[in-house]
Amino acid sequence: MTMERTGSVEEVRRHVAAWRKEGSAVGFVPTMGALHAGHLALVEVVKARGARAVVSIFVNPKQFGPHEDFDRYPRDVEGDAAKLAGAGADLLFAPAVDEVYPPGVAVVPVHVSGVSEGMEGARRPGHFDGVATVVKRLFDIVKPDFAVFGQKDGQQVAVVRKMVEDLRLPVEIVVRETIREPDGLALSSRNQYLSPEERRMAPALFRALLAGHLVYQLGEKKAEKILKMVRMALETEPAIRLDALDLVDAVTMQPVKKVDRPVMLAGAIVVGKTRLIDNVRFGG
């Protein structure tokens, strides 16, 4: 079956309405493009459920800060379209900014309280408001039965889950485990910024997070000691700068002092000029 492609909201709605008439469920994968195997694995989740797969490619300006890499963010819609067709996607929605945020039309900003303010939300003010606003807008356009996200963006998943819960949206949120390279590096569109030497160093973040998890498995429950182990593990790569490290409740994204419930251990490093994030979940 040939993948359809459009930049029109009305065309998306026409396709979805036709599929619903034939009794098909609709799964949705929102992306910013520069697709890799991690994104395609999300499409595979939709197809494994026997649903029609709608994928959006939209570099959302509302989630980038004034000094972040919006203009530099990699874009390759033609290459992405070929990958999606090969993965079995049914519809690619690649709109212009004016199609998602029409001039003169009020798009209500969405703030998800509680899970948005800490961690990346504190370090990137307004970022998760931009994420929630665009995801809500895309859900309104596609009206999927379920949407699939990757666990690598753990706090983003928590924000979307709570937004759906707070607004009582009729969308199931499905989360796919992080897809990794053989050496453990989480797949990311930003990995292509890395030089060969930076690429060699980059898996140190995942190894350090695993070291923190191992300390927990050996019986340590205190957050400060788990975090200390992660920092010590990263010292093996002095050229890497630890930018952020958090141990939080896996649902609320609030810091914990000890692991007595499911938690997420999340970190961000800067390698050269590239900022990479990753996380592991454990506890409970």
CATH superfamily of the largest domain: HUPs
Q: Might you state the CATH topology name of the largest domain? A: Rossmann fold
What is the N-to-C order of secondary-structure elements (H for helix, E for strand)?
A: EHEHEHEHHHEHEHHHEEE
CATH second-level architecture of the largest domain: 3-Layer(aba) Sandwich
Strand content: 15-25%
**CA-CA gap between termini:** 44 Å
Using the CA coordinates, give the radius of gyration. 19 Å
Q: Indicate the CATH class of the largest domain.
A: Alpha Beta
Mean pLDDT: 94
Give me the count of strands. Answer: 9
Which regions contain 5 or more consecutive residues with pLDDT less than 50?
A: none
The number of domains: 2
Kindly state the percentage of residues in helix. Answer: 25-40%
Please state the structural category.
Answer: alpha/beta
How is this fold's topology laid out?
Layout: E1 4-6, H1 9-21, E2 26-31, H2 37-48, E3 52-57, H3 77-87, E4 91-93, H4 97-100, H5 120-123, H6 127-142, E5 146-150, H7 154-167, E6 172-176, H8 196-201, H9 204-217, H10 223-234, E7 241-249, E8 263-271, E9 274-282
Parallel strand pairs: 1-4, 2-3, 2-5, 3-4, 5-6
Antiparallel strand pairs: 7-8, 8-9
Characterise this structure.
There is one protein chain. The chain is an alpha/beta fold and 284 residues long. The protein folds into 2 domains: 4-176, Rossmann fold; 189-282, Pantoate--beta-alanine Ligase, Chain: A,domain 2 (2-Layer Sandwich). The chain has helices at 9-21, 37-48, 77-87, 97-100, 120-123, 127-142, 154-167, 196-201, 204-217, 223-234, and strands at 4-6, 26-31, 52-57, 91-93, 146-150, 172-176, 241-249, 263-271, 274-282. The model has no long low-confidence stretch (mean pLDDT 94).
